[in-house]
Amino acid sequence: MKIQLNEQLSISKLVIGCMRMNDWNLSAEQVVEFIEWCIERGITTFDHADIYGGDHRNEGLFGEALQLKPSLREQIEIVTKCAISVPNARNPHIKTRYFNTDKEYILTQVNDSLDKLQCGYIDILLIHMFDLLIDPRELNETLLQLQSEGKVKYFGLSNHSPLEFDTLQKYSDVPFVTNQFMLHPLGIQNYQNGAMTHCLKEGISPMIWSPLAGGRIFKPTNAFEEKMHNVLETIRQELGLEHLDEVVYKWIFKHSSNPVIVLGTGNKERIERAIRSAEGPELTKEQWYKVLVEAGYTLW
Length: 300
Hints:
With about 300 residues, this protein is α/β, with parallel strands linked by helices. About 40% of the residues lie in helices and about 15% in strands.
């Protein structure tokens, strides 16, 4: 269940996405139990962002659990993100949503994340979105400072195109260990724009979020989604799988870049199905391409 991102760093093939943790209605004690349950099943990586939660509180919910049982910290990998400025009660001075990669802003956000998570370091910090006004030299200085201070071990990007990734990597003295972006059978833009192939070229494993298209895989809302649902259901029956989401996970896992899937759920039954999907029968190449073409990919 482990994926090696570099010689020193490995993460689990399945990652628990904590964006909706505030909706799980778990006490700190229950979060501890959930983390332990995941670790027992080989899932050791948890994905956060400074803005997750209605009032940016999800890192804090996780931190409360770590405070109850500090020994958990060395058993897990924490991923978090920054660079999105959001107008809300927490930030009354912000009037417009925008992206910010200024040095002072990133340093402030990382320190805030560490305070909320109640831990001394972050395993992987991702730049959440591409800032069109970014100064890549300044970003490099920022990342080097965070690394030298021991606050962040490794860095990556999130929702960056191949060109954006290469541009920032050109100026960076630290190698980016991953690119996290959306991919599912209803949204294949990161195949169409070359992001998946770029990960293969760079030798990095992409982290895939929203693999089930926010549930639309199960409950189609239009003719396109209904047709895809039927294609996936046919493959499910051909492979003898129990549930449709297992087909989707297997479709994502089949790519040679060795993708990691971010599960945006705290539902243990759904997590168990995702674990099963990493084993057993694989999609044939023909089945895999059937999904891709139905998703709108033009082969020639």
